[in-house]
């Protein structure tokens, strides 16, 4: 058998092996190729362990430079309860400083705010076949603000509990991490001094990562 015949024989043998492998491949595996991984199960259909359903993340909130200066953080721990439901808890801390001008034109610290909060939330992907990754979002948030007058040292504290409802769109980066844009409406908003310190509007927008 010359070299050309040997090459043709090997090519036919390899082609037959590939074709046989494609025909005998597990039909379930072939059918699921290209699909997103399940959020609560392994590819074999076994439930994921508790730790592999957890998500960790958060965001930066109240970010402002100048007068006032404000910066906050909001860590989040979330749990993939079902394929379409996420439950979680979060905390927040925001530091805000206002400055006032004196008669000489210099600036001195005037008011300092330390804002602490905690929240529990539920997200439900309600129309995954039409708009995947769009969630109904509901939460209860409790916030406390400690106000300090820097010149006098006098302090005061305010507290507010806010139920919020709205939507979250989550852009997945991996099975356990995504970028989340949330729009909520504060059902307990009122245009009084305490509420205005926490939220300047009944509408709340957030960008978070978990």
Automatic annotation (TrEMBL):
Question: Which portions of the sequence form the region Disordered?
Answer: 24-51
Highest taxon in the source lineage? Bacteria
Q: Which residues form the signal peptide?
A: 1-21
Task: Name the keywords, alphabetized.
Answer: Signal
Q: Where is the composition biased (Basic and acidic residues)?
A: 28-38
What name does UniProt use for this protein? Answer: Outer membrane protein beta-barrel domain-containing protein
Give the organism the record lists.
Spirosoma endophyticum
Upper taxonomic classification of the species?
Answer: Bacteria, Pseudomonadati, Bacteroidota, Cytophagia, Cytophagales
């Amino acid at each position: 058998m010359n070299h050309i015949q040997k090459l043709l024989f090997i090519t036919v043998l390899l082609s037959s092996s590939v074709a046989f492998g494609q025909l005998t491949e597990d039909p379930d595996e072939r059918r699921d190729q290209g699909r997103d991984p399940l959020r609560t199960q392994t590819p074999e259909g076994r439930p994921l362990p508790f730790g592999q359903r957890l998500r960790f993340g958060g965001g930066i909130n109240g970010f402002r430079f100048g007068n006032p200066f404000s910066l906050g953080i909001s860590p989040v721990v979330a749990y993939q309860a079902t394929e379409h439901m996420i439950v979680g808890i979060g905390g927040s801390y925001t530091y805000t400083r206002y400055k006032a001008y004196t008669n000489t034109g210099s600036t001195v610290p005037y008011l300092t705010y330390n804002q602490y909060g905690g929240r529990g939330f539920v997200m439900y992907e309600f129309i995954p076949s039409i708009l995947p990754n769009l969630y109904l979002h509901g939460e209860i948030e409790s916030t406390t603000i400690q106000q300090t007058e820097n010149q006098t040292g006098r302090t005061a504290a305010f507290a507010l509990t806010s139920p919020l409802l709205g939507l979250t769109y989550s852009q997945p980066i991996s099975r356990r991490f995504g970028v989340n844009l949330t729009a909520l409406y504060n059902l307990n908003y009122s245009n009084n001094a305490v509420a205005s310190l926490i939220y300047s509007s009944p509408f709340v927008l957030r960008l978070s990562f978990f």
